[in-house]
Amino acid sequence: MMHKQSSMTHSQSSSDKLARGLGWLSLGMGLYKLLAPGKLTRQLGMQGNENSMRACGAREIMSGIGALSDNPTPAIWSRLGGDVVDLAVLTYALKDEHNTKKENVYLALSVVGILTAIDCACAKGLSPRHAYQRGITPDYSHRSGFPQGLASARGRSRFSSARRYERCLALSNALRASARICEDQSNGSIKNRTRHMYPGSVLFC
């Protein structure tokens, strides 16, 4: 089991490892937004938008779970779309004249902007690698599985079967010959014993 996990780790590309990191980050941020939406909205001067913050947290958790799967590409693209939405919401909050937490909004915009660039690079790196899983499975029904063709394989199979038959036949003949020799030797031994016991008799076999 440990060997299997080690081989899977070595087979991951840098984009796969980055996607896993983003997945864990999404889970953490999603849980924070889902469990403490009031604290976040107060820090950003967006009181009254707690339900929207919870929805954003649920989206982050779903993206995080997908990013930890075997094919994280759709989840990372989903994260990128969520980043665009977050940027739009924060920009709207920044333009609000009644918002007294604009410094925090600027900081949040910077962080989301950096994450957007990282998500975009990760998604572009994952797409070619996992493109086969999204496409149609190629049809290999025309392939026989034999490099030199099915006819050649059948010819070799017949030749191999003929050689096995010849070997079995030769072995069988050798065994029969050995059995006859043993039988002849046994009969000869019996005759010699009878002659010694009854010198004047003749044994017909």
Describe the structure.
It contains eight helices and no strands. It has about 200 residues and is an all-alpha fold. It folds into two domains: about 15-130; about 155-200. Helix 2 packs antiparallel against helix 4 and helix 5 runs antiparallel to helix 6 (about 100-130). The model is unreliable at about 1-10 and about 200-205 (pLDDT under 50).
Q: Into how many domains do the coordinates divide?
A: 2
Major sheet: none
Number of strands: 0
Annotation field: number of helices: 8
Average pLDDT works out at 77
SSE topology string = HHHHHHHH
Structural class: mainly alpha
Helix content: over 70%
Which strand-content bin applies to the residues? under 5%
Q: Rough shape? A: rod-shaped
Low-confidence stretches: 1-10, 201-205
Radius of gyration: 41 Å
What is the chains' assembly state?
single chain
Terminal-residue CA separation: 72 Å
What's this entry about, in short?
This protein has 205 residues and is mainly α.
Give the arrangement of secondary structure elements:
Elements: H1 2-11, H2 14-35, H3 37-43, H4 50-67, H5 73-94, H6 102-129, H7 131-134, H8 150-197
Helix pairs in contact: 2-4, 2-6, 3-4, 4-5, 5-6
